[in-house]
Design brief:
2 copies of one chain form a homodimer.
Chain A (H helix, E strand, L loop, with lengths): L2 H6 L15 H14 L4 H8 L7 H29 L6 H9 L1 H33 L7 H18 L1 H7 L1 H24 L22 H11 L8 H4 L8 H30 L14 H10 L3 H16 L1 H17 L17 H17 L8 H26 L4 H58 L14 E5 L5 H13 L3 E7 L6 H22 L6 E6 L6 H14 L5 E8 L13 H12 L4 E8 L4
Parallel strand pairs in A: 1-2, 1-4, 2-3, 4-5
Helix pairs in contact in A: 2-8, 2-9, 2-12, 2-14, 2-15, 3-10, 4-10, 4-12, 4-17, 4-18, 5-6, 5-17, 6-7, 6-14, 6-15, 6-16, 6-17, 6-18, 7-8, 7-15, 7-16, 9-12, 9-14, 10-18, 12-13, 13-14, 15-16, 17-18
Chain lengths: ~625, ~625
């Protein structure tokens, strides 16, 4: 069993494509980690904006979370329709391309790609940040921990979606079970105590209000809370990963994710309101997150607390996985339209689009290294990317239903409401967060689109250059002049000259003189004589045209220049005839053998291919030892 | 001007070889830094062993340094003779090879190579150590400083010996001028005060004796002091770098280095004796090196102190340069005898043996990283390697003069004395330092020799495999079957098929089916029709045998396997006939274009070369845009 099989699993045939598909139970962890994980920082972000209101913030938290949940419901129904209308891989990119044209689709693609990269870096660093604030002794290893988790997640994804999906299922369902259970118990307590539940561990008292309520403050809180909605689009981007019946499995996945997320958001707001939980300043000592206060208030600091908080840490770390599912898929779609290098569209031995996985790993790794593993302040940028995607997708769906016409008025209305609300959301977020980082997205998105367009232009130009002007016209069929790289006679050169003689009667052995020294003149004559005696003689005796030996100096030790000069001279002497250069090459069986051979044959070949001109062929005659 | 020209200088032609050679004034810094720099730690190492004697050590330091200086004189005369006898590159390796046989030469080579690598790591780390003990705020950057200096030294050497030599001349001559001047002034003070010079800065008082004098203690002090002699062999190894008259320039270089080193050793011992300088424990606070005490005692703590100590730091750091001159040369010699990969013997565009320089940089860099930039305790290992080299070289010279016979008795005697003394020195050092690290050398030297022998065996076997069994026998000259990798018709494939038809009438276009989907069957038929109409038709119309199209499935997406299967089938159908595979390849002009193309053509080619068997040729038909 080869090393690569152990690490990445056996290779999979094309016909196994279907077997790698997933159902809804595996789809929730594979595509929902990002969306569900963001419930841990969305409400907290909203409450943080409300800190200046002090205890009054409890009265307003409902007014901030309610529109977010309403937006989530609208998005849920909108995306159900998208999945139905585009049951193949149909995220914002496809929807925008088919309904709004290429520029809108590139806008969606750029927003998505940036979002996915940010998500990996931020998800992992937020998880590790939460971990190190629980276990401060791990603090010095922050970056190492981040990169280690990145590598594990990337490796799992290189094995393929199905196995990676199940690897993440346990913490996801543990998180859902513990928090939905806790919230249910909390709500029961609230009802049974008529709105005055006794907290097991009392949350820190809220400070007196320092500011009056203003619309701007509530808008900013709403914008901050909207980070809870990032990741909802993942299912529509990943529909292609589901097994038959695709639409049903995808709908179920979306339903579970949105329902759980909505319950979590509404539940957290409710419990916060009645138990009196507020956000705390993270830079102050004694800081406790809202979720930590929530678990402590409802369940105390026992086993349940550590299990629940552990599941939060885990799914934050693993929420990066959503990107590893989505990023390669969107890149593949974009690459199939020639906006990205074609390698992004090639399935590897495990049917994974490994170039996309690798690219994502490297970019996210660079972000982590540059920020030293602390990238929390990139979190706000998410919401912008996500809402940009939502908006493009919804507007595309509106156009889709309009074109279809007929009995789709209700569907059109749903997506129109979705589009209108996400546009409003986008504007609010962009306004509220411009200085906090929205400007970065405003730079990065057009830059990404410019790169995508440049790549497309390159392929378009190449396609034009390659397309035949007219029918196939056979050029000259004269046999070519064959040059054979020749140093001294051995089995390898014997075979090379035999091969050359099968191709053409016009064979020239080229001997490159690499060093100049006094004794070389005699040496040269001796070599010429040996060639006449050993090679040319026997060939002539068979009644064939004997090969000639040409000795050319290589004053700068590099061999490409002199060979190219010779090719040019031959080209001028026999215009219209092709020149072939035959290079004998030792076939190396083992990797370490490469260390023992200069790559001269390969370098010469590469230089000839790059600069050889129109009528040149480069022939490699591999020689295997023992054959 | 290209970037590489700015960084490394313009390329040099073979005929410029002579111009890159150096004279003695440049030779002293280029080859003497190691030897001269070791005067800063040799006497200190000897005095450190004598610390238990307290003030009594001053009475004995002369008895330890005197035999070292005597040994140096013997080595000087011995190496003069070696240079005379071997005026081409003739270090211990050549001398041993010619006189003692291959195993002795490999012993010398292994000892030298290990020594050179150690010297780089230890020299740089010792220099940086001295620097950071003067400027403690640099302490946290120890490793970074070490690696930075390594890169600068390596880059200077990649530009070539001459320029690198002059870069190092200033600190070398500054060091010599300041210390020889200081010692002269100190000796003058000693004489003028009849042996009781008043120190400007009094050295710390010596402790009372804790131990009695013993022969073992003096032997250990001698062994420690012998580190001062490392690097003396560098000139004999580097004779080839000198300009004409080679022997004279080399002799002058050796004379300057040995005379300066001898004066420094004797002078330091004399000044230490009369001024009462002793070694201090480096692990204790307030530590001052012997040289620091010496400069302070003679010149006080003024400008002279800082200039002199600065020059010590600099030449310690730069003593690594000796290795960069010597290591590539010894590797080249060993590689010419097939004990190292041949790339070590290839002069690059600047006529430098850059593989050796690079290898040295990487190994020394690894040592530095592994030891975190603190490799001082490797210093003792030097002396073993150096004395091993001395001994092999001297014994070889004795055999040399015996073989020459005649009037060489005096010369034989000199080298015999040299051999005897270095053997004694080697045994003393090995015994005194076995536990301190000599055992590492005893492991590393045979291991290195084993690797060198394995490489030689590989090349010998390859040479036997390649050597023709008999005269050139022309195999079948039937024109080969030519397969052309064919995806869809474009200018590139048009040209490829034209080329193929010039080589053989038997042309087969091979179309690899990468994906399986329902609509593909029709697609395949359409492609076959298009091929018949567009390619085969026009060729047949010219009266030639039309090419065929073969469509083969590639269920695992990799293309090598199916193509190799096809080759095998053709091979069986037409035994004795060669098969050529023609792969059209896009010639890429700019580096970034590679990112936009999968390396399919190159990967296929590499796989065919590696596994293609006996009768296969791989033809690349490069296609350049716009041509």
């Amino acid at each position: 069993m080869k090393m690569i099989d152990v690490l990445l699993g056996r290779r999979l045939a094309n016909r196994e494509q279907g077997e790698q598909k997933i159902g809804w139970a595996a789809g929730v962890p594979a595509m929902g980690l990002d969306g569900l994980g963001s419930s841990s920082y969305g409400p907290e972000a909203a409450l943080t904006i409300l800190i200046p209101l002090g205890a009054i913030s409890l009265a307003w938290i409902g007014w901030v979370i309610a529109p977010i949940v309403a937006l989530l419901v609208i998005l849920y129904f909108s995306y159900r329709q998208t999945i139905l209308a585009y049951p193949s891989n149909g995220g914002a990119y496809t929807v925008a391309k088919e309904n709004l044209g290429p520029m809108a689709s590139l806008l969606a693609a750029a927003a998505l790609m940036i979002d996915y990269v940010l998500n990996v870096a931020v998800g992992i660093s937020a998880g590790v940040g939460a971990l190190t604030s629980s276990v401060p002794s791990l603090q010095p290893w922050t970056l190492e921990l981040c990169l280690g988790i990145l590598v594990v997640v990337a490796a799992a994804n290189l094995r393929g979606t199905r196995e990676a999906g199940w690897l993440f299922a346990l913490p996801t369902y543990l998180f859902l079970a513990s928090f939905l259970g806790l919230i249910a118990w909390g709500v029961f307590q609230i009802i049974s105590t008529a709105g005055h539940p006794p907290p097991l561990v009392a949350p820190p008292p809220l400070k007196p209000a320092a500011e009056a309520v203003s619309l701007w403050l509530l808008m900013r809180a709403f914008a901050a809370g909207c980070t809870a909605m990032t990741g909802v689009e993942a299912v529509s981007n990943g529909v292609g990963a589901f097994r038959e019946p695709v639409v049903k499995e995808a709908h179920w996945t979306l339903t579970v994710i949105c329902a759980a997320l909505g319950l979590l958001l509404a539940g957290i707001a409710t419990v916060a309101h009645f138990y009196g939980l507020g956000a705390m300043d993270q830079t102050q000592p004694g800081y406790q997150s809202v979720l930590s206060q929530l678990v402590g208030a409802i369940a105390g600091r026992g086993v349940v607390y550590y299990v629940a908080m552990g599941s939060v840490l885990t799914i934050l770390c693993l929420s990066a996985n959503t990107s590893f599912v989505g990023f390669p898929r969107i890149c593949r779609l974009v690459a199939l339209d020639d906006y990205l290098p074609r390698a992004f569209a090639v399935a590897d031995r495990r049917l994974v689009f490994s170039v996309g996985v690798t690219f994502l790993t490297i970019t996210a790794g660079c972000l982590l290294v540059v920020f030293g593993g602390i990238t929390d302040h990139l979190i706000p940028l998410f919401a912008i990317g996500a809402f940009l995607t939502f908006t493009v997708s919804q507007v595309g769906m509106v156009v889709h239903w309009r074109r279809r016409g007929g009995r789709n008025t209700a569907r059109l209305a749903i997506n129109a409401v979705g589009a209108a609300t996400t546009i409003v959301g986008l504007l609010v977020i962009a306004a509220a967060k411009f200085m906090e980082g929205a400007w970065i997205v405003i730079v990065a998105v057009p830059a990404t689109i410019a790169v995508l367009l440049a790549i497309r232009r390159y392929y378009d130009r190449l396609g034009r250059d390659l397309s035949p002007a007219s029918g196939f016209t056979l050029e000259d069929v004269d046999r070519p002049t064959v040059l054979v790289a020749y140093d001294e006679r051995n089995r390898m050169t014997d075979r090379a000259i035999s091969f050359a003689l099968t191709l053409s009667p016009d064979v020239v052995a080229v001997h490159l003189l690499r060093l100049t020294s006094p004794e070389q003149e005699e040496d040269l004559a001796a070599r010429r004589d040996a060639f006449e005696r050993d090679i040319a003689g026997p060939v002539a005796a068979r009644g064939l045209v004997p090969p000639r030996l040409v000795q050319i100096p290589a004053p700068y030790r590099e061999i490409e220049g002199p060979v190219l000069d010779l090719v040019e001279r031959i080209d001028e002497a026999t215009p219209g005839r092709a020149v072939a250069i035959l290079i004998p090459e030792l076939a190396l069986d083992r990797w370490w053998e490469r260390l023992l051979h200069s790559r001269r044959a390969q370098r010469l070949r590469a230089a000839l291919v790059a600069h050889g001109g129109t009528r040149l062929m480069v022939i490699t005659a591999p020689w295997q030892r023992g054959l």
